[in-house]
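Feature request, filed as a ticket because there's no other form

It would be nice if the structure record came with a short human-readable summary line next to the tokens. Right now we just get the raw output. Example of a typical job, pasted below so the devs can see what we mean:
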Amino acid sequence: MTDQVLHFCLQFANLTVILCQIVYHYMPPNGGLWIMFGLILLEGLLGGTAYVNTFYRVTQEVRYNICLYSTLNSERVNYILNCSYAWCSSL
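Raw output as currently delivered:
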């Protein structure tokens, strides 16, 4: 449980720093770009670890049949939504 709390705190700190930068523009113009690149990299790493942790926990805590069924259904819904959007945008 402490890993989840740490992960949440890191994501919240990242969000706070980025939002403060958007509102207050406190980073220097020259070096601030590289700091923002680092924060975006950190955001991607945190998102990736959240995805991997979720996938691992689902595979460990949920029966295989339920995992397979929910994965296939989510892919079908995604396909239907994408086709519907493509059809509506072609009108």
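Something like this underneath would help us a lot:
The two ends are 50 Å apart (CA to CA).
Residues 2-89 form one domain.
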